């Protein structure tokens, strides 16, 4: 993945250009908080916004994008179908509702949010229909482990183009990243900053000092240099702007390996093999 600037993209399996850096809005409250966050991000040059039905802020995301002085095709919008909406017909209905809330007539990327046992294959068939009908430019999954991908792919017509999963210095998941790349599925990190937990890792602070950057900037740059699309969440204007200042330095190969070694296989979110929501 060649890194250029905040508007740089990576090419998905179907040729769609997806910005490799974006804003996540998990836990951003609907209304003014998310509207401000998205507005600040777009003003700072972000061109990729990641939301989901369960975040309950799609309307605010759509309002902020609509008010921005940008053409619709300049902003890459991702949303996700929630677990209670999975299944073929329910997914199609949920997609329509997301479009209405986002005030758009298509999505750039639509994801299956979690691998709900007994449902995600049916849900995927709905995503394939939406894709074939031209209502979404790319489709993918979220929180799928290697065995989920194998199970899905053996019965699908269109392979996922993206797999978004928990990824940060304490959960590097090298085998899953390798699996995705081998399948030409682009890996994407959620919670790349461990909901602020990265700031408590002393080795990262030392490295940040070395590069005259802050910890968040080092971690986000590490993500991108590993070929991982990343979508840090913030509702703070200064942090949103600061997180984007990662294209004027490069982490050395030795330091990349040093960050890799911080891995403890420690999740801050749910285990995709053991969740009950």
From TrEMBL:
Site features described as Lowers pKa of active site Tyr, chain residue numbers: 80
Q: Where is the NADP-dependent oxidoreductase domain?
A: 32-263
Annotated source species: Alkalitalea saponilacus
Q: Which Pfam families match?
A: Aldo_ket_red
Among the GO molecular function terms of this UniProt record, one is:
oxidoreductase activity, acting on the CH-OH group of donors, NAD or NADP as acceptor
Q: Where does substrate bind?
A: 113
Q: Which UniProt keywords apply?
A: NADP, Oxidoreductase
CDD domains from the UniProt entry: AKR_AKR5G1-3
Coiled coil regions in record: none
- Protein name, per record: Aldo/keto reductase
User: InterPro entries, per this entry?
Assistant: AKR, AKR5G, Aldo/ket_reductase_CS, NAD(P)_OxRdtase_dom_sf, NADP_OxRdtase_dom
Q: Entry's SUPFAM superfamilies? A: NAD(P)-linked oxidoreductase (SSF51430)
Highest taxon of the lineage: Bacteria
Give the family, as the similarity comment puts it: Belongs to the aldo/keto reductase family.
The catalytic site is made up of: 55 (proton donor)
């Amino acid at each position: 993945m060649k890194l250029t600037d905040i508007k740089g993209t990576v090419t998905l399996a179907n040729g769609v250009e997806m910005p490799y850096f974006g804003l996540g809005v998990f836990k951003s409250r609907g209304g003014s908080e998310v509207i401000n966050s998205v507005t600040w991000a777009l003003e700072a040059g972000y061109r990729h916004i990641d939301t989901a039905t369960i975040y309950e802020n799609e309307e605010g995301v759509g309002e902020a994008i609509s008010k921005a002085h940008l053409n619709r095709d300049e902003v890459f919008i991702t949303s996700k179908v929630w677990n209670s909406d999975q299944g073929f017909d329910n997914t199609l209905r949920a997609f329509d509702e997301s479009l209405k809330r986002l005030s758009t007539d298509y999505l750039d990327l639509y994801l299956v949010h979690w691998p709900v046992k007994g449902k995600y294959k049916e849900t995927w068939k709905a995503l394939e229909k939406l894709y074939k009908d031209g209502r979404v430019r790319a489709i993918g999954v979220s929180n799928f482990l290697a065995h989920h991908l194998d199970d899905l792919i053996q019965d699908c017509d269109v392979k996922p183009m993206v797999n978004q999963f928990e990824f940060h210095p304490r959960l590097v998941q090298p085998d899953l990243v390798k699996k995705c790349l081998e399948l030409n599925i682009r890996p994407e990190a959620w919670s790349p900053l461990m909901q602020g937990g990265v700031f408590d890792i002393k080795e990262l602070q030392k490295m940040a000092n070395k590069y005259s950057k802050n910890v968040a900037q080092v971690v986000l740059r590490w993500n991108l240099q590993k070929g991982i699309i990343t979508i840090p969440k913030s509702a703070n204007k200064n942090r949103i702007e600061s997180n984007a200042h990662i294209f004027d330095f490069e982490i050395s190969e030795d330091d990349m390996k040093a960050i890799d070694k911080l891995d403890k296989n420690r999740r801050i979110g749910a285990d995709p093999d053991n969740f009950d929501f």
